[in-house]
Amino acid sequence: MRKIILFLLIFGITLTATAGGPTYSRYGIGDLAYFGSNRAFAIGVLGIGLTGDGFINRFNPAGLSRISLTRISAGFEFSSMTLKDQSGSTKFARGDFQSIALAVPVSRQHGVVFYAGTAPFSNVDYRIQVREMTYGSPSTQTFSGIGGLSTLTLGLSYSPRADLSLGLKYSYVYGTIEHITNVDFDDLTFTDNELQSSRFHSGSMFTLGLLAEDLGSLLGVPALKPFQLGLIIGTPAKLSVRQENVLLTSSSVDTTSVVRGKTDLPFSFGLGVSYRAADRMLFTTDVFLQEWQGSNFFGGPSGGVRNSARIAGGVEFLPKASPSSYGDRIAYRAGFAYNSTYHTVGGQAVNEWYLSGGVGLPIGPDAKMNLTLQAGSRGATDGGLQKVDFIRFSVSISASEAWFITLEED
Amino acid sequence: MTEKKKISLKSILTGIIAATMVISSGCADDPSPVGSSLLPRGDLVAVDSLLIHASKSWSEKTLPFPFATRTIVALGDSGGFEAWTFLRFEGFPDSLNNATFVSADVRLREAYHVGDSLAGLSFSVHKAVGEWNRATYVFDSLATPGIYESDDPSRTLSPTGEFAVDTAIVREWIRSVSDTAYRNFGIVLEPEPGSVIRGFHSGVLDSAELRPTLTIRFLMSGSALEDTLIFNTVTDKFVAGSPDTTFTGDSTLITIRGGAAYRGALSLDVDTVPAHAAIHRAFLDLTFDASSSHLASNQQRSLLALYGGVSKSVQASELLATEPAVYRFNVTEFLQAMVRGGDTTMWFSTEEEANSVGLFKMHGAAAPNTALRPRVTVLYTPTR
């Protein structure tokens, strides 16, 4: 088990050496990372309407309430992208840290579970090269960006009654986004230079969650008993941003300016519904909305933004309700997602869809290795957009251990 | 069942590696134009230009030069600019103490001239009576008495660069070798008003043929046979300057001259350049005033622009093929520093400043013809 985790860590870290990605990440705060849990990732959803003992729900804190043993989970994501537009196509691959999370049950009776975790919130990674005639001299201009925002999150769930859970999480959002513009003139009398603009972000936001596990008893409608309903509300946030511009030439490094400002993170709302068809099959869907319209990114909208909407649905099933073999304990997952992203370019909407599938492989008494494959597309090759065909492969480990549990003596 | 599980995990790990290899294969390391259509034109680097005229210009006298860098001693007067030479021959044998001196002649080997090449070079040879410090003695030090005797007659340098020295002075030098009552401070050559300054090879040169020489003809006691000894171990220096320094404040013409030396200076008002601009190119053009310049016969047609606090603090000029002549300097790095709040003054010197007394006059910030004033053409990108 330890060898596997070590192998994945080294493997994941090594892969991050290759970089590059969609140009869309140049705008706003980059590409948003939607990661609800290892389980939900394979189903395609965020997990707003999911709860259970075998995973840590990062998106809806109310979904933590059924965790009975201390659980730790971590994962990496490897992705390959083919970027296309009118000028041609290129490929990039990269590896990213996905998330690490710890959930500690404090009171099983009241569904009190403490949660701590960190995960990427957004990702900026692009490289574009342009040839331009600049004041009579040809120049090669390279635009690149790296970094992104991450969250450090603390959360708590509470179940006032057996079929209803509430949750609250606090997220400290932080991270550096660096945009680099490099100009290389063909004419040697021109001085080449590079402008590095780094924005250091920090701020806080809260997410309130609710999860009704048995809609039938909650609403007094027996037909709704197999349904679960989840809700989340994310508070808007104003991130403090310190922007540092550094101009580099072959002979000098100058900090040209240090400016402070704000970047908005919007109000968000999510709704998820799950339906347990049998003991071994679960259908789930969720929708997540963010009010990006009018958001400021360090003083002004960066490129076009619009309100985003993400809708997804999928299924998880076990071969047998009462597993007797290793194969019986493998969880199979599949789903889809459609994301109307917050980016627009020249009035053109940038939309994304993908299919996902994966397995949860038992690797211990209460541990699983989750493998997920997602394939989809974003944008288009016309309308001045960029089409991004991608394959994502995720590997994560989720395991539990009995901490702080007092065993009663016979 | 356990065996089955182990096999499955191995297969899974192999599958992960294989899948990742497939996913990562064929990836680009270099950036490409793909995605450039998403860049607004405003994000591309667009270069603006502007012209800056010097707000002020003047000239300044520099600090003394390091002795080791001076391979020339200059002597003469041209247009009120004087070059004085100091020579101290050494290495005399005390066996000459009782000799009868017939003559003593100094010979200098010319390296260049400034002014009228045909004009005679008239000067006085003074016996030096005080220590002239190689490092710190400068033109202004001449006003301090006690360094040389000043009642000597004028003489003219021969076409071969020779002049006679009073043998009585030479005898004292020889006696100073063994008798502390005598001192050897050498001689001071004071130029008479004239129209030429000549530069001679100095004693620091390795070539004995080029160094100044002192030739002594003498008769040993009891001998009728005239003998000759030539000495070329010499400590020398020259100081140069103008008694009238009002030209330093002249902003219509910038004086740049080696030897003394006078450096030109000009100030730029860079407020018109956006505060955080990235300077891609800045060319400074200085226009040469041929009518008032007096270049040395071996003068390089090049000047140096000097600026402190940058990595390439010296920029040599390029002589543009224009009439009047324009000396162009790439002052990109200087401008970049100025825009960042650095000193807005730059200085100009001649090449071979320590040795060549050639005079460059460049049109200054207050030149009547504005087209001739110093100007900097700046290409920049405003950064956000």
Question: What structural keywords apply?
Answer:
heterodimer, A: 410 residues, mainly beta, 14-stranded antiparallel barrel, B: 384 residues, nine-stranded antiparallel β-sheet, eight-stranded antiparallel β-sheet, elongated, disordered N terminus
What distance lies between the first and last C-alpha atoms of chain B, to the nearest angstrom? Answer: 65 Å
Structural class of chain A: mainly beta
Radius of gyration of chain A: 23 Å
Shape field of chain A: elongated
Identify the biggest protein-protein contact and residues per side: A-B, 70 and 54 residues
* Strand segment tally of chain A: 20
Overall pLDDT confidence of chain A: 89
Q: Determine the structural class of chain B based on helices, strands and strand pairing.
A: mainly beta
Kindly state the mean pLDDT of chain B as a whole number? Answer: 88
Contiguous low-pLDDT stretches of chain B (5 residues minimum) are: 1-7
CA-to-CA gap between the ends of chain A? 33 Å
β-strand amount of chain A = over 45%
Question: What is the structure about, briefly put?
Answer:
The complex is a heterodimer of chains A (410) and B (384). Chain A has 410 residues and is mainly beta. Chain A contains 3 helices and 20 strands.
Structural overview:
Chain A is mainly beta. Helices cover 6% and strands 61% of the residues of chain A. Chain A contains three helices and 20 strands. Chain A has helices at residues 2-15, 38-43, 215-219, and strands at 31-32, 70-85, 88-107, 112-120, 122-134, 137-147, 150-161, 164-185, 193-212, 227-234, 237-248, 253-265, 268-278, 281-290, 304-305, 308-317, 331-345, 348-364, 367-378, 387-401. In chain A, strands 2-3-4-7-8-9-10-13-14-16-17-18-19-20 form a 14-stranded antiparallel β-barrel. In chain A, strand 13 and strand 14 form a beta hairpin. Chain A is elongated. The model of chain A is unreliable at 12-18 (pLDDT under 50). With 384 residues, chain B is mainly beta. Chain B contains three helices and 23 strands. Chain B has helices spanning 2-24, 167-175, 332-339; strands at residues 48-61, 72-78, 81-89, 100-107, 110-115, 122-127, 154-156, 162-164, 187-191, 195-201, 213-219, 226-231, 234-241, 253-257, 262-268, 278-287, 303-306, 314-316, 318-320, 326-330, 345-350, 359-363, 375-381. Chain B has a nine-stranded antiparallel sheet. In chain B, a hairpin with a 5-residue loop joins strand 19 (318-320) and strand 20 (326-330). The model of chain B is unreliable at 1-7 (pLDDT under 50). The chains are: A mainly beta (410), B mainly beta (384). Chains A and B meet through helix 1, strand 2, strand 3, strand 5 and strand 6 of A and helix 1, strand 16 and helix 3 of B.
